[in-house]
What we know:
Oligomer: single chain
Number of helices: 3
Structural class: alpha/beta
Largest sheet: 5 strands, mixed
CATH superfamily of the largest domain: Transcription elongation factor, GreA/GreB, C-terminal domain
Helix content: 25-40%
CATH topology of the largest domain: Chitinase A, domain 3
Amino acid sequence: MEKIPMTAGGYAALERELQRRRSEERPRIIAAISEARAHGDLSENAEYHAAKEAQSHNEGRISDLEDMLSRAEVIDVSKLSGTTIKFGATVTLVDEDTEEEKTYQIVGDAEADVKEGRISISSPIARALIGKSVGDSVEVTAPGGARAYEVLQVAFR
Length: 157
């Protein structure tokens, strides 16, 4: 069984989602199914079919979350150190073309959120950054085209 690396914060977020889906979503959906079933003929009951579809989606997500949490390898980023980029590192880069600075934390697939500055360890930019240090230039081939970045800072927090 392959372990899934994630930060402690990412693990906690997945646990919160699992708890919410079990204790809030599941009972809400069951109530919606019961209410729709009371309306009569199920073959032409759109509310019933929508509620059953929501139930299927919720149960599938619960199963996915349970699987991810059971295989999680929680990495305490605060105990990491060094000057080389690895999982958990917070990296500040400058785009060599636009001079725009960006800061990303390299995290597990399940907790990645680019808007929050967290990129997946399996993303093209993270794969290109692994093993690099401050001052290194990195060429990233992404779906939007090739970009060149210089590593300005590497931190573990």
